[in-house]
Description:
- This protein is α+β, with helices and mostly antiparallel strands and about 475 residues long.
- It contains 15 helices and eight strands.
Amino acid sequence: MATSWLKPLHVNKGKTIAQTITDRTDYAENPEKTRKGELVTGYECAPRTADVEFLLSKQQYADITGRNQGKHDILAYHIRQAFKPGEITPELANELGRELALRFTKGNHAFIVATHVDKNHIHNHVVFNSTTLDCTHKFQNFWGSSKAVRRLSDMICLEHGLSVIDDPKPSKGKNYHKWMGDKEPSWRDKVMAAIDTTLDKKPTDFDTFLKLLQQADVEIKQRGDTLSLRMTTFNSQGKKQKGFIRFRSLPDDYIESAVRERIEGKRIVQKKKSIAPAKKVNLLIDIQNSIKAQNSPGYERWAKIFNLKQAAQTLLFLQDNDITEIDVLQEKAQTAKDDFNNLSIRINAADSRMKEITTLQKHIGAYSKTKDIFAAYRKSKYSKKYLAEHEDAITSHRAAKQYFNELNLEKLPTIKTLQAEYATLSTDKKKMYSEYQQSRKYMQDILTAKQNAEQLLNYHSTAKEKENERN
Length: 471
């Protein structure tokens, strides 16, 4: 999950309460952004009439409680939840948005979830009514509610194996647009990427490098001893790079002399270090020492990065599950995700088959009831008069027959057989749901422990490296 926020919605200046609510729900439900409304779902309200239902609940609230805050009233709350490109389908994103809203409101407020797919990243707009379903209370916004939404969204995303930002900040730290893939790399970035790609091909000398670079859509201009580069491709707006970039103006690892050294193997560009250390670490001892190290140098700085409560929870979880090594923790976390996903697939398969059985029973019943009518229709040589008299029955018969053909059924199963299969599936599904809840809880715990442990080890590893550099 890339980012999320929560905003209270007040009456817009110059507009009525009804217009304000409609503006917000219309924006969220925009058919051009939601596959013509296919990716809009509602809870305790119909998406198309959510604005009217929200307004009606506020009138009922005023009648019941006698309270009316007028223009200072908070009409609804807007949650935005965005995902990293390529990690999630629109359908799953909508489900996660619904889960986020249900868990955050505890199911006490009506809401809509609209999944937008018009940007490079899939994102949800959740609008929930500030008035409760029974129209007797309002949602009590609290200090740190936005953080609570983000933490809950992070947890839900972790449960589904999606990315999260460890320490999101409004203006510092990771750049939102680059992380999301919205902001296209600059021409300079593209030139450097082309250089890296060309060097990966192991050119034997600089002249060969330049030839390969040209094959990577880079135009090369030389004036005297000065080399300049320009991409020949188009960007996402259909524009080409105008000016050339001088080789010597690139970062240190990309200037001409550095590239020559990289070709000769004299300069090695360091890759990003892995979070987990190569050697095995006893997680229990490491976390215990961290919790106890309140008087050690650097503790206050560490405490700001890593929450002690989380460290303690992680320690208990690792102790209960006898996990003492990072590679074991990572392996178990992956297994937990796989088990949960496989269980979800089994539940979905059972649910799909149950729906198919229900539809099949419906068509079998219709086919049996209309069999004689259709036979008479065929015997009448498809008389228009007969068709007019029995059009509904004949249409129902044809629809049933077409459905059987789509399933490639050579012989129709009996209703009794289908009922028995449905009952078995229903029983199995109930058992799987119980297992699903346990699997989901375990996956949530172990993914959280894994994230916490990796953050902890990453901090200590970085701190140790800096200490060695000082020494």
